[in-house]
What we know:
Layout (H helix, E strand, L loop, with lengths): L2 H12 L3 E4 L6 H10 L3 E4 L3 H15 L3 E5 L3 H15 L4 E7 L17 H5 L5 E4 L6 H13 L6 E6 H5 L24 H13 L3 E5 L1 H5 L3 H11 L3 E3 L14 E4 L3 H9 L2 E5 L18 E6 L13 E4 L2 H11 L11 H7 L7 H9 L5 E4 L3 H9 L8 E2 L10 H16 L12 E6 H6 L4 H6 L4 E7 L4 H10 L14 H7 L4 E3 L3 H12 L5 E6 L1 H6 L1
Parallel strand pairs: 1-2, 1-3, 3-4, 4-6, 5-6, 7-8, 7-10, 8-9, 10-11, 11-12, 13-14, 13-15, 15-16, 16-18, 17-18
Helix pairs in contact: 1-2, 1-6, 3-4, 3-16, 8-12, 10-12, 11-13, 14-21
Bound molecules: thiamine diphosphate (TPP) and magnesium ion (MG).
Thiamine diphosphate (TPP) binds next to helix 15, strand 15, helix 17 and helix 19.
Amino acid sequence: MTGADLLVKSLYACGVRIVFGMPGSHTVAIYDAIERHGGIHTILTRNEQAGAFAADGYARVTGQPGVICTTAGPGATNALTGIGEAWGDSVPVLLITGQVNHDRLCQECGNYHETDLESIFRPCTKYVGTVMDHRQTPDMVAEAWQAMTTGRPRPAALILPQDLMGMDCKVDLPVADVTSPLRKRGQSFDPMLALRAGELLSRAQRPVLLAGGGTVWANAGPELRQLAALLDCPIITSQQGKGIVDERDRYSLGHARSARGRLAQEHADAMLAIGCRFTEVMTGFRKMHVPKQLIQIDINPCEIGMNYPVEVGIVADAKEALQAILTELPTQVNSDWSEVWPIARAAKRATSEWMIDVLRAEIPDDAVVFTDASEMAYRMHTDFPAYLPRSFFYPSNYIALGWGFPAAIGAASGFALAAGPRGPKPQASRLVVSFSGDGGFVMTCQELATAARYQLRMIIIIHNDNAYGAIKHLQRIKYESRFRDTDLNNPDLLALAQAFGVPARRAGTADAFRDALREAQRQDGPFVIEVPDKWRYLRH
Ligand SMILES: Cc1ncc(C[n+]2csc(CCOP(=O)(O)OP(=O)(O)O)c2C)c(N)n1
Ligand SMILES: [Mg+2]
């Protein structure tokens, strides 16, 4: 048994069944151990950045940590942007990376791939460690796993010197048990706080519930819905909280920045914010109306009162805190939204986009949509209703362009794995949609090779305005239309897809888009739809 065998056994014991990434000289021992172990699938990506994005997409959709394995030095730093995205959006992603021999570390004595990975990854991981004795491996895997899966989910990095991975352990060392009670996500909190929160909410005339990503990771949808029903009040969400309660539900007023969501905020005299960070994007650069009577629940104590002053702050897991508030809620509640409900429910968005409407109408309710940092995707936050938790994703806070397509690959890989080689037919597994602009798609388009290699069932939509439209827009409104480096000379995207072996179609109208979506859903593998948008291009 080698250090790499110990690593693989430990990962398997944590429940890892899929590893994204690519091998290099410093990690071939790990890949060989995976090959001999036989219980873990690998998904080969063509750039480690995309591998980290895929691990992130897998984690977001399954709720389980995603794993990315890279070689030392450039492999690891390629993955850095993906780890940054997972850090910004609170997603558990484990980076497994090689390193130069342990006795040569930090000496700059000519070992290729050498760089100080701990220092590079420390600011964007909850746990980072370099194995300095191969027998430490099981404990360090368990520590990394524990960091990712308790409290606020965030990435971790485990750095493995290549000599230790190849080293024989002589004995069959046991791996650490991480399935034991370290699962508890929150810490205990003062029940008086739940009582105060319950009193405040029941006294309010128009309370509103604001749900963020913390509610999704805590699986707190049922409690949230129950509280809304008891208070007869609206639920609005951040981008990360989208779908925690079906956006068609009578208590849902959708995304906080939607026309309906804004109405809820404007009329609210109390707010319960749960697992929501009040980020720059979500609050429209702090312009969001937040009532003075603010109760905030967050698993991370630093978030309480960080952006808006709070009346009551509860450091807890969202589900546990909501359960406590439900218990403490007085039977007499004063809430009365009767005048606002009809106006808010009828509120219409400013302009409708056929791309968004046709997509929502054509794909199944349980389809999973990954969007990239593009103008149309930004519109989708407010205008694309999510029906389920973990069904609509956007790189919300680090906002790495090029994230959407590889992240969708990660999710599609997870579904393919769950279906298994003899499992349900591909059509029976959930449909994955990737929705990018042309700029973002071309940034990681090499992953068409990955989608084709594993025949992942996914629809890859590219909204093509031949521009970095979002940035061109800024040049127009802030810099008197002095356009520089925002018009693009794109390849023929259909020919590009076909060169990778992925069928593709162009659709320039709502009808053509509808037909293309239907054709795509009849496929067993990936399918590209390009939507050219000359009109938008000219409008800028
Ligand atoms: C890695 C990275 N580089 C640059 C940016 C800045 N950026 C944000 S949106 C955008 C343009 C995206 O263009 P496209 O994907 O075509 O979508 P569009 O805005 O045209 O809808 C750019 C360059 C970023 N967020 N991330
Ligand atoms: Mg564009």
